[in-house]
């Protein structure tokens, strides 16, 4: 059977697209989960952020901390690589809202964790394709 030049071009283009899709499948988002404690107690509420040490090979992703646990599902997961971890939570202990402020207004509080866990974080992890990517942080 003889094909026209445009048919060959179509088949070649289709083949390139299929091969590129195969390459993209190798870049895989991975689920991440773990526990976070502070001074031996589970962190009730907060957030955790993963910043790639090489921004050309990854992206920033985060999750909320609820009852001492966090989880990032695969569809929003991290790429394989090394990440700086930043953990943050508000310290509401002993704080009461100002009675002169409207209900629902933002309640000002201080950061629960020392800056070595957030703004100047020394926490780091390596996400691996083989997993499991369970990272527990027991902060002091």
Describe the structure.
14% of the residues lie in helices and 34% in strands. With 140 residues, the protein is α+β, with helices and mostly antiparallel strands. Strands 1, 2, 5 and 10 form a four-stranded mixed beta sheet that branches. Strands 4-3-6-9 form a four-stranded antiparallel beta sheet, with no helix packed on it. The longest helix has 20 residues. About 14% of the residues have low confidence.
List strands and helices in order, with pairings.
Blueprint: H1 5-24, E1 32-38, E2 41-42, E3 45-52, E4 61-66, E5 69-72, E6 81-88, E7 90-91, E8 110-111, E9 123-127, E10 137-139
Parallel strand pairs: 1-10
Antiparallel strand pairs: 1-2, 1-5, 3-4, 3-6, 6-9, 7-8
Describe the largest sheet: 4 strands, mixed
Show unreliable segments: 6-16, 18-25
| Residue fraction in strands | 25-35%
Rg from Cα = 23 Å
CATH topological fold name = Immunoglobulin-like
CATH class term: Mainly Beta
Number of strands: 10
- Helical content stands at 10-25%
SSE string: HEEEEEEEEEE
Mean pLDDT: 81
Provide the CATH architecture.
Sandwich
